[in-house]
Amino acid sequence: MIYSFKGHIPVVHESSFVHPLAAVTGNVIIGKNCYIGPGAAIRGDWGEIILEDGVNVQENCTVHMFPGKSIVLKEGAHIGHGAIIHGANLGRNCLIGMNSVIMDDAEIGDECIVGAMAFVKAETKFEKRQLIVGNPAKAIKEVSDEMIAWKTAGTKLYQQLPTDCQKTLKEVEPLREIPKDRPKQEDFYKTLQEIKLKK
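Structure tokens predicted for Phenylacetic acid degradation protein PaaY (199 residues):
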């Protein structure tokens, strides 16, 4: 659902996909090849929210802020399931782990990885390429080339997902039994741990 608010109408590039069960409200600008999952709420009622090209905001995420703010999720930012971004700015090609909370005026640098369930306090600033974990969150080491290559490959899947959704996603009635010719899912992405075990 796309909603205007006080004269602000969201701008969504035609190559991006906003799931019908997501809510995008007001002063929101969504760039190219972005994916907004079901249950996501991007609320530009009190301030401006900019999603640059290739950003994904997955299921049940919230993006919001205090009045009068403008925030940017830079190109390729990857927001994992259930995360909350409240008035924070996210760097290029960063990963925000599932159920993390990033608070007001925090800044996550380019190519940072924030672990699942981390809590980043207001006004905390992290330089680029930091692995950030915990509550309160702290940087524990630098993100390796291997880690960022894995993250970037995962984000590319989400950058392809809008096209796949536009071409194939449709509301249907469920089947009542499993068909004999049910298609197999493709196996085209490995966890970082699986990649390390192969070496």
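The CA atoms of residues 18 and 36 lie 5 Å apart.
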